[in-house]
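Feature request disguised as a bug: please show the residue count (1224) next to NPC1 like intracellular cholesterol transporter 1 in the output. Example input:
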Amino acid sequence: CRAQHEPGYCVFYEECGRNPLLENTLIPPIVPCLNYTHAQPCMLLLQVCPMFDQGENNTYACCTIRQLRSLEASLSLSQAVLVRCPACAYNFAHLHCINTCSPNQSQTVKVTKVMNVTELNVTREAVVGYQAFISNTFADASFNSCKNVRIPATIGGYAISTMCGRYGAKLCTPQRWYDFQGDSSNGLAPLDIDFRLIEEGDATGVPEGVIPYNGHALMCNETTPTGGQVCSCQDCQESCPSVPPPPPVAPPFTLLSIDGYLVISIILLFLLILSFLLYLFVSYWVTSRNRKDEEKGKRRGKGKDKNSNNVTQQVINPSEVTCAETNSLAAQDFLSSLFQIWGTIMATYPLTVSTLTVAIFSAGLKNIELTTDPVELWSAPNSRARQEKDFHDTYFDPFYRTNQLILTAPGRKGQIYDSLLFGPQNFSGIMSKDLIIELLELQNRIQVDKVKDVCFAPLNPNNPSLTDCAVNSLPQYFQNNHKNKEIQSAYFHGLRLPWHKTHSLFLFFHFFSSSPLSFKDITDLGMSCMADYGAPVFPFLAVGGYEDDAFISAEALILTYSLNNYARSDPRFKVAMQWEKEFLKIVQDYQKDPSTNFTFAYMAERSLEDEINRTTAEDIPIFMISYAVIFIYIAVALGEYSSWKRILVDSKFLVGLGGILVVACSVLASMGFYSWIGIPSSLVILQVVPFLVLAVGADNIFIFVLEYQRDVRRPGETRQQQIGRVLGCVAPSMLLCSLSESVCFFLGALSTMPAVKSFALYAALAVLMDFVLQMTAFVALLSLDARRQDNNRCELLCCVKVSTQRPKKPNEGFLMPFMKKYYAPVLLHRYTRIIVMLVFIFMLCGSLFLMMNVKVGLDQELAMPQDSYMLTYFQYLYKYFEVGVPVYFVTKKGFNFNSVEGMNAVCSSVGCDQFSLTQKIQYATDYPELSYVAIPANSWVDDFIDWLNPESKCCRLYTSGSSIGQFCPANQTVKQVLFIQIEMMTVNKKFFGFFYSFVSPASRFMAYHTPLTNSQEFTAALQKARELAYNITLSMRKVPGTSITNVFYEQYLTIVNEGLFNISICLLPTFVVCCLLLGLDVRSGLLNLLTIIMIVVDTVGVMTLWGIDYNAVALINLVTAVGISVEFVSHMTRSFALSTKPTRVTRAAEATAKMGSAVFAGVAMTNLPGILVLALAKAQLIQIFFFRLNLVITLLGMAHGLIFLPVLLSYFGKYIIFSHFFSL
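Example output, currently without the count:
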C-alpha cells in the first residue's frame, strides 16, 4: 500500500509529536504520522496554502488544521525575510504546501524514514524523512523569484544568504537552496527532506507512479493571486525600470586628436614669438630713421650727471611734456620730500611710539589661540559640507572614533585546497588557527575595562559592558570566546578534521562569512555567527586583500575598535584620548615583541593629530637654524668692509639683528592684534608669515643700508640729514612694495577658506607693521650705528676705537660693480636680449600647458613625517580594504514621513516608488566605477514596514501585564499581530505611536563608497554623491549627501576658482599701487603686473613637473609668491622709470646694477639659505610646500626680476621722463 502513488492520496496525515532525533531547534520539530489515506476536506486551506483552494465543499488536502497551524508558524519565520517580495513568499509557501498539504501528495513524495513516536501514551509510526520530487522548471522559477530579495538592515545583503547554509548568496543554486530547507540541522525543518529536482521528460531515479511537481511558480514581477503587488526593483531585477547608465567621465580636452591645451600653448607660443619678431623689425626700422636725425645733431646737447660725468641728453621743450610725466615727477618729489623730513626726524629723535605700538599689540598674545582642528582650518563655517556635518552631528552623534589594526603574515605560505563542495580554493596563509588565536589574545589585551565607558555600543548605549562594545574582527565569529573556539576544535576533531587541517578551517570560515546574520549555523554546534555585541560582522570588516568575495584568500585580518566621539569640552573626550594612548602603547609594545607572528599597521583616531604635533615639535629646531642662517647672512652682507683693521667697525651685526627684531616685532604685533579681536592663528601662519615678512623686510633693509653706504655726505650736511635724504630716495620704492603686498593680502582675506583667510589677514598686517617699524625703529637704529661708525668705535665693544679712518669715497661693495661692469652689459647685449625673450616666452607657454595638468588635492599621508607609522597604515589601508568610507544621505527636519507618498519616496520594498531615495542609491551601485558607491544604503523604513507586516508572528508589543503596550523581544511568546496596512498609515493613530519610536526629526541612510586612495578620488566621490543627492532631491525634499571626509575634500571642488580669484585680487593692487605711486604710469604698472603673472604661472608649471599638488597650502604659497614677486619686480620697475639715462637699454642697465644688486642681496640671498635648511625637515608638508615650493618661487622670482624684467624694460619700458631736464 505504501508503494502506491495515486492522485487524491496522502502518504502522511495528522501530527504524531516531536521528532526524537532533534533538539535545540528554533521551532518545535513536530512530525506527521505515516498514513496512506484519501485526501480529506479542508476549509482553512485558503489562509495558508491558497494555491490548493478549490472553493467551498470542493477543497481537499493531506493536512489537518493542526498541521496547517504548524506550517503557518514555520513559514512565518522564513517569510519574515522574504515578505519584501510577495511573489517569492508565495512561491516559498507553495513549495512547502506541496509537500505538506497537496491533495495529490503521494504523487510527489516518497517516505524514506519512519520512527515510532509516543505522545500522550500513544505510540504511532511517524515520518522523519522523505523524498520530494520537484520539476526543475518550478524549482528554478521559485529560486529566481527569491534570489535577489534583500535584507535592508544588512547593508545590501541578500535574504537567500541566510537560507543557503555554507554557500551563501553567491554560490547558492536551486538545489542547494532546497537542500538547506530540507536539512533538519538548520533549526527550522522538523524532519529531513531530500529534494529531488527532475528535468522535464527525464524519469531517471523517479519511482513508478511519481510525477515531479510542476505547478506554476510566479515570477517576481507578477502579482500574487492573493493580491500581493509586484516585487520592488531592489528585490527583483525584472521589476526595474529602464535606467540609463550615468554619463561616462568626460574625455580629456583634445584638438585634432592631440591634447587641446598643448595645441593652444603651441599656437600661443608661435603667436608671441611672431609678435615679438615683428616688434623687433618695426623698432629697428624706427630706430634707423631716428638715428639719421640724431646724426644731423638735431636736439642734441651736453650735460653732466650727478657724478660730473659728461652725458648726452635731450633738450626738451616744455610743450612736449605730458600730463602723466608731470604727475609722475610730482608724486616722486612729494614722497621723497615727505620721507626725507620723516627720516631726518627719526634719525635725530629715535621714537618710542613704534615700541609702544608693538608692546600694545603684542600684549594680545596672551589670548592667542592656535587652530589645530583640520575641520576648522580648511572648511569654512558656512560651506555646504560644514553645514551638512553640523546638521548631521546635531541630530545624530558624530561619526565614531576609529582605532584599527591591519595584520598580515607575509611569511605564511598559502595553499590550494580542492573542496568537494566548492572546487579548488586559494587558501591564504593568514587563515590559520595559531594566528587567529594570537589575534584574539591581542584583542583581549587591548580591550581593557575602561573602554566600556567610551566605546560605541549600538545595542546597549546607556550602560554597556565590555561585550557590548563594537569590536569587529574575525574572532567575533565565535564571539571572542576561547570556549567556543575549543568547542569548534573538538567538533572538527570529531569529524577527524583537526584545526590545523585546511579543510576544517575552510569550513569554519566559510560557514560564518557566507551568513554573518545567522543566529545558528548549520553544523551540529548550532553556534551563532553574530558578534558578541549582538550585531553581524560583515566579512569586508574582518578581512581584506581578497577579490570577488573570495574571503578565504584574504591576505589581511582587520581588528577595529569603535569609540564614541565627544566634543573636546566633554570630560569623556579625555577618557577616550587616554584609552587611545594606551591602545597605541599596547600595539607598539606588541610590534616590538620578537615572538609576534604578524606584520601589521595600526592607527588611533588621535594618531593624525599626534603625528602632526610630533613632527612640528621636531622641526622647530630646523626653523630656528633656518632663521639663524638668515640672520648670519644679513649681519655679514650688510657690512662695508674696506680694511681688516676696520672689520669690527664696518660690520653690521647689530643692524642685522635689529632688522631681524623688526621682522619679529611686526609678526608679534600682527599676531597680538588678531588675538585681541579673536581671530585664531595656526601652524601655517607661524611657519609662513615670518618667512614672507623676512623676505620683504630684508629687501627693504638692504635697499636702505646699501643706498646709505653708496651715498656721499654733502658738504655741511649732518648725519641725520643724510639719512633723511637717503630715506627720501628709497622709501617711495619701499612704500610701493609694502603697500602693494599689504593691500594684496588684505584683499586675499576675501577667501572663504579659513586657513587662507587668516593667513592673508596676519600677513597683511605684519607687512604693514614691518614697513612702519622700518620707517621708525630701524631708521633710528641705523642712525645710532652710523654715529658709532663715524666715531670709529667697534661693534659690540663700543668703548674700543680704531685709528684707521673711514674711506672718503662711497662703498659700492662687490655686487654692484660686478653687475655694472659684467652682468648688465652681457644681459643687455642685443643678441642676449633676444634669446632671453624667446626663452621666457617658451617658459610661459610651457607653464601654461603644465598648469592645466597640475593635480588638485592633498593626500593625507603628506601631512605625516617620513618616519610615521601612519604612512604604513595608509599603505595597508589602500592595499587591503575592500570598501571605502561611509556616505550618508540625510532627510532634513520637516520631511513628511506621515504620508504614503513620503514613505514611498524613501523605502525600497514592495509598493515603493521605483525611483525612491534608497532605490536611486541602489541604481548607483550598479556602476561603482562612475558613482563611487559600492554598497547600497540600508533603510530603517523598510525595516519598519517589515515590522508592521501582519505576516510576521514575532512578538512586538506586550498585550497584558505591567508592560502592556511596550515593546517586547521577538523571542517572547506573547504576541500582538499589527494589522496596519501602509495605505492606512496617515489615519491610524496606532501607527504614529510606533512610527515615532523609529524616527528622529531627521533621518539618515548610510551607504559605502568604493575604496578611495587619493584626494582626487575622494573629491570625485564627493562630487558624485552630491549629484546623486541632487537627483534624489528633485523628487523629494532636500536630501544632502554627506560623508565624514567631505569637510576636507569639498575645498577641491572650488579651489581652482578660489585660487584664480585670490591671486587675481592680489594682483590688482600691485598694478594700481604701482601706477599711483609712479604718477599714473600705466605702462610701468602693466609691465610690473605682467612679470608677476609670469612668475606665478611658471611656479604652477614647475609644481606640475616636481609633483607638487595644488591645494590650500599651495594656494597660500602662491599668494605669498605674489608678495615676494613684488619685491623682485617693483623695485626694479621704479628704478627704471625714474632713471635719467637717455635710452631704454642704458636705463635698464642702471636699474639692474643699482637696484638689482640690492634685490639680489636682499631677497634672493636672504631667502635661499633659509629655504635650503628646510630640506632637512622631517615633515613632508614642509619639504614639499615650504622647501620645494619656496625654492621654486625664489628662483623664478630671481630669474624674472634680474634677467627677464631688465630685458623686458629695455624693449617695452616707458620713455625717459622729460621733466627731469628742465624746471617748469
